[in-house]
Every structure is written in C-alpha cells, then in structure tokens.
Amino acid sequence: MNVKVPTDLDLCAQEPIRIPGGIQPHGALIVLDAGLATILQASANAPEFLGFDAKAGATLDSGPLAAALTALRANAAGDPFLKPIEIGGKCLLVSAHGTAQGVIVEFEETDPDILASNPYPRMQRFVDRIESSQDIDNVLAEAAREVRDLTGFNRVMIYRFDADWNGTVIAEDGDGVLPSYLDLRFPATDIPAQARELYLLNRLRLIPSSSYEPVPIEPATSPVDGARLDLSDAALRSVSPIHLEYMRNMGTGASMSISLVVDGALWGLISCHNRNPMEVDARIRAACEFLGRIVGHQIAFHERRRESADRLALKRVETELVSHLARTPVFQEGLVARSQQWLKLTNAEGAAVITEGMVLTTGQVPPSDRIKDLARWLQGMDVDRVFATRELGKHWSAGRTIADVASGVVAVPISQRHASFIMWFRPELKHTVKWGGEPAKTVDDRAMRISPRTSFEIWKETVRGRAVPWSRAELHSAEDFRQSVVDLVLQRAEERAEMTEELQRSNKELEAFSYSISHDLRAPFRHIAGYAQLLKEEEPSLKDLSRHYIEGISQAAVTAGQLVDDLLQFSQLGRTGLKMSRIDMNKVVEEIQRGLSHEMEGRRIEWKVEEDLPVAWGDPSLVRQAMFNLVENAVKYSRDSDPAIITIAGSRNADGATRYSVADNGVGFDMTYVGKLFQVFQRLHHSDEFDGTGIGLALTKRIVDRHGGSISAEGTLGKGAMFTIELPDRRGENERGKLETDPAG
Amino acid sequence: MASLRPILLVEDNPADIELTVAALRKTNIANEIVIARDGVEALDYIFCEGDHAARDGEQPAVILLDLKLPKVDGIEVLEKVKSHPRHRNIPIVMLTSSREETDVVRSYEQGVNSFVVKPVDFNAFFEAIRNLGLVWAVLNEPYPGGR
Fold it and tell me: Mean pLDDT, chain A, as a whole number?
C-alpha cells in the first residue's frame, strides 16, 4: 500500500485530505483525458470492479464503457453527471466531474429496486412538514428523523458550529443502538479548517466502513501536471485514518455527513452513524444532499425570523424599562428596581451601572472594585458605542481573574467625560454546560487518544474564559438602550439647568425682597421707638402708668426691629460666601463673655471654660455668631440658677474635626422636642418667661451646616442643657487660598 | 469762632427727618440743618444750582446722606460729590436702614467717610447722631480749600 498518511494528531490540521492518493473500496475510480479516449489514472480495484483491464494507458473506444462514454459525451460540460448504467452485467451508478487533471469517473454498485423508487413524493412531504414548523428546533428534529428514515442509520444528529467552529449536538434521532450524543460539545480541532472547506464544496460524505483499507490510485501522480490526483469532489475520496480511528473509538462502523450551509457559510452538519458498516445508495445520498440544502434554507429563514423576533422582544423590554427610568428620579436606582428587565436586555446573568465612581449591580457580577477597574480600562479604550466580548481575558489580562462570572461583557459608555458605563456580564461557558450523555469513564476510554469524551474535555479547555457569544439582537439592544439612557441623562441635565435658572431667578427676587424689608420694614419700627422716646422726654410729668405704656411701645418696636434684623441675617447666610481662617476659640469666648456683661449684671455665674480650646477653622464672624448664640442661651436659661454654672469644653477628633460644647445648669428642655429646637420660630419656652426671637438656634445650626459641620443638643427639664457643635477640618481650603493670594509664601 | 457751617441732611422720609433733627438738636449742636428731600435737591444745594443757584456757596460741615432716595439715589450723590475736585473733601456719612453688606461695600468704595446703620433703638440712634454731630460738625476742621 502506498497511501501515506500522518498519524500524529498535531499534524491533523496539515493533513493533505484533498490528495489522499486513494479511494474507499466500495467503488472504483478512473481518470480520463479530456477527449474521453484514454485512461490516465485508475484505482487499483478498477479492473476487477469494471470487469475489464481498466488501467492507466488503456483506450476505451469500444468495450464495456462504450455506453457510459456515449452518455458522458452527451452531458453538457459542467453539469453534474449521475446515471445508472449497465457495465459488465452489473448495474452501476456512474458519476463524473471534470478537473484540471482530467475527467474523474466514479462507479458504485446500485440496487435496481432503489432505482425504481421515486424519492420525490417523500421529499415533498418532508418539505411540507418543515415549512409549517414554527421553530428551528422542530425543523432540525424533523430533518434528523427523515434522514434516519431514508438511510437506516442507527443515529442521526444535527451538529452546529459556533463562531469559533466548536460544535454542539443540538438535535438527534436514533434507535438506541448507539448512545445519545445530544448536547455533546466538540472542539474546533475535531473538524480542521481544510475539512470544513471541503464540506462546503462537497456537501455529502459517506464512509460505509470505518475499517476499510484504502485502494491506491495508479499511478499516484497525474500525467497531466505531475501532481497527486485532487479528489476534492470525488465521492469515493479516502478519508483521514485519524478520522477512522475516531469513528472506531466511537463504536461506529459507518458514517455519513451532510453539510448544512447557510448564507454561503458552513452552519453545521447532519451527522449519521451506524454501529456496523453499511452502504447508502448514491440515489439516497442525492436525496439526503437535497434535504440538506432545503434544511439550510429553512435555517436561514428561521434565523432571520428569530433575530427580528428577538429584536422586537428586546425592544419591548427596552421600551418598558426606559419608560420606568423616565419616571425614576435617579435612573441608576430605576435599573436596580427593574433588575429582571435590565438583565433581559442582553440576556445576561449580571449587570452593573457605574457612574461617578458609584457601582450598582444585579445578578452574578464581579466584585465592585474589579468593575471599577474594568470601567477605567474601558475608558482608556475609548469605546464609541458598544464594547462586546465573549472572552474578556483576551482583551484585558486582569479580566482572567473574573472569568467565572464575567467572561462575556457588553459595556456601553453613557458619559463623554466620565468613566460611566452600563455593563452586562455572562459567565464562563464551561460553568453553564453539561453533557447529558457523558458516559461513565472506563479503562478503554482512557486508552483512547481520541474519543467523544476526549473531545468534550478538549472542548472544555477550548472554551475556558469564554462565554456564550452575544447575538446581534442583544448587541443592538444594548446600543439602543445606551442611546435612551444618554437621552434621559441629557434631558435630566437640561431640566436641572432650567431649575437652576429658575432658582437663581427666585434667589434674586428673594434678595431684592429682603433688601426692601431691611430698608422699609425696619424704618417704621425705628420711628415708633423714636417717637415714643421723644414723647417720654417731652412729657416728664407723665403718670407712672402712662410712662409704663410708652416703655412698652418702645420695647415692642425694638423687639420687632430685632426680629427683622435676625431674619435678614438668617437669609443672608445662605447667600454669602464663607471667608475661612484660623479662629482662636478661647479669644472668641472671652469676647462673647464681654459682650454679655450687661445680661450678667447682678448674677452669680460660675464659668468653667477649658483653657486650651482647640483652634477652629471657619468664617470667624459666623463661628463667633454661632458660639455667641449658644453662650447667650446658656446665660439666659440659667437665669434662675444660683450660682449658674456654664461649662465650655472642646476637643479634636482623629479626623481633625473640632467639637465645642456649651453646657448650663438652667431650665433645660424636654428631649421629646429636641427636633424642634433648631427650627426657625420654634420656642420651647413661653416668650413671657424668656425673651428672644426664636431664630438664634436656627441661625446657629445654619452657620454650622454652612461649614459642613453638625450640631446636637441634650437636655433635661429643670437640670440644664448642653449644645455641641462640630466643625470639620477645613484647613486645606485656607492653605489653598493662601497659596493663590500669596505667591511669595 | 467762625460761623458754624450747616449740616446737610439728605432724607426723604419725614419721620426720619423729624427724628434726626430732634436727635441733633438734643446734642446742642447749633449748626443750621439744611434738608434735601431727594438726590437732585441735595446736588443742587451742594453745587449751588437750581433753587440754590443764588446760595453763597458755603460748603456744609457734613452731609448726612440716606442711601435710598427718590430721583437720584444716595450712592449717585456720593459719587458726584466725591468725584468733584472742590467738593470731594466734604465729609459724608451714609445714614441708612440697610444692613445689606453689598451696600456697605459699595459705599466704602466710593470713599464714604462713615457709614451708620440707623439703629431701631432710639437711644442708640441718638448716640449715633450725637457722635456724628460732634465729630463732623464741631470738631472737624474744614478743609483748607473750602470756605
């Protein structure tokens, strides 16, 4: 035997399968010159098969092939030739095709009964059945059943290629003699590229026996070009011994495969197996090939329909989700609230939204820090509209650590300036796939270097770090959704801008209003007080009661004027900027004590002021005002305590914030009302007991708020109260300001 | 002692006029008090124009100027006086109800000599007026260039 084939599995992909140098023994092959007069090459079994000395150099003018030659000459060039012709007393099916190396004529024995049967009514019924099918799975199941009916194979399966040429068994029909391979996966290497190319050219291959001995072509090289005979289109072409080994390891004696071609590309195979060797008549094979073509068209039709149906369904999900988001003030939260729809948009297992460093997620997702890393990496990638991968680790090496949940990623940017993305995740494929038919391990299996089990294991390695690919519909859906969200965010921004404008306008109005209050409302109170005073002085002989009344009038006017002043100061606080600097709080307290000397006249007050109050950072006049209000209150509300004890303490937190507390042993307050303390005009005491405008604590709180600090109060009725303010460390701001204004420093 | 130069009070509110005059009088300030009811009147007086064209042109000892005035407001009056070479040394005290910081800043930018927010409390008001009167009308020597 002069057929040379590689046996090393690694060389499988380089195997010269088009020029194997031999044919399968179930037929014979001769190569004729263009004039159909002389045999150029012939399979070694041709003389025996054809019953005459059919060897290279033989001329064919007369003899057993005369009828075949006549038919061949009558056949228009280029048309496929397939005819039953009686040769040497046998009914042979003759097929022929022209090549650069001559006309290749193949002979196979055929059964006259099959010849007599007409396969077309059967085909018609099949077409009717699959055309009424609503989905592709049904079509494929029908196809598997029909092929098994036509051929009698023990098992017929439909095998589908993925984007990487790995295969999956997606439909199957069998009689139970061979095990089920449904859901079995095969790595791309199982059917190498050159084999797939041949499958496109030659739509049907038959191997009647997995243990055949190839019949050599003689001579091995063509006299036309000196090259080995190209058997690409020959039905009898001998196949790779590795393939035969695989078949034997699968426990199959015969196999046949029919290509499923969709839109010019190999989509899958109808793969048939029999335990024992078996022949399939050429006419049946022709019917099967035809069936394969029909199924290919049906697949194309269903895939298009499915894609548009998918897109429609996803569009519906998107529309619902977007209309929900439009009603949610914060769209990120809207997404989380509608997790199911969010995931459904791309049929993902997990999703995340990253905006301004905030990560919100649903489903199976990587840790937030990894998601942030991914967002940063994507930002650097300058993604235009959609980034999609089924193998993140291939693009971003750090992605390998999160392959289990995020092998598949779709990310859409939703901001031009920030690393803000909406992302969807799909887990690694091997985590999601099980081969239902995987048989228990046996010693035999392990001895086999190639077998379905090995294939499945290799496939698992192949898809490590990979997810189910994203469909076109899913990617469209992600892109459309991105646009909707961007529009929504933009719309929000516009609304916000409008609102800001509105606010600025009303702020201006408010400012004008308070100005006029300041000027116009204050004047009458001043006049009342002034006239009352003048009256008192003009009439020194007034009765005591009258004098008391006048006194009341001026007092009321002064209080009203004070109220206006306080209100103005309160409203002004929100509008003016803070002038930050260092504040010596001990000095502030001393000043406050001096300022309150009038109120303290005739009272015994025991001051317990910490000597080293921490230095505060803030607007000096405002912080002084805040402290003043607290100390003034302490003095005022401890009026009836003798002695009054006022304690002022301070401390610095670990984060640099400073706390100051002012405590007294005065009337205190009921903690039930603590929430009302800091509201404007809320008073916990009757105004006839303690005077005041009810603005002081509200003002203090507002000052503290403006500094980003906090205020709290504790009190017990009749025992005293303690107020604590905390001011954050804002030294940095001052230093920055200093740098700007003092270049020399 | 030279004759006392007048005090010019620019104020539109009659109550404020009455109270300010009363307060000034209570301090025993003997200066004549000239009253202008709006910015135009004040400028006419200072620059000897309009109704005051026939005036002898003696500069007031001090101008007590309300911020908010009809026709021409206090800031404008301040601007005109302070930008005039002959009159810019007349002491001007802004007398106003407003506590608005912006007003304070604006007034000082124009070179106002003093700024007094009229206190509601009449005693405080009286104190303020009395101090003003003493400082500007009595103690202040007139600028040598003026008459």
Answer: 84
